[in-house]
Design brief:
The protein has helices at about 1-15, 20-35, 45-60, 65-75. With about 80 residues, it is an all-alpha fold. The radius of gyration is 20 Å and the shape is elongated.
């Protein structure tokens, strides 16, 4: 099943502009490098999120049980 999805996508990609094809190739290469890498290298955005979480934790900023329940209720429909 997935092979057909990929085959269809790759056929359509051939009609994309060269810049878009190159961007897709770069993203695929990055994914492949991550899959083949023994260590994970987080992006700058991920590192910023980690730093923000560590700061908030150090300051005692945690979600209340009510806030947690509201998020679960929203996404568990």
């Amino acid at each position: 099943m997935m092979t057909k999805v990929w085959d269809d996508l790759l056929r359509r990609v051939q009609s994309w502009p060269n810049d878009a094809q190159e961007e897709l190739a770069q993203v695929a290469a990055e994914i492949e490098a991550e899959l083949n890498s023994a260590t994970y290298e987080p992006s700058l955005a991920e590192l910023d999120g980690i730093d923000r979480g560590l700061r908030d934790s150090a300051e005692g900023k945690f979600a209340s049980q009510e806030q947690i329940n509201a998020v679960f209720a929203k996404y568990r429909r």
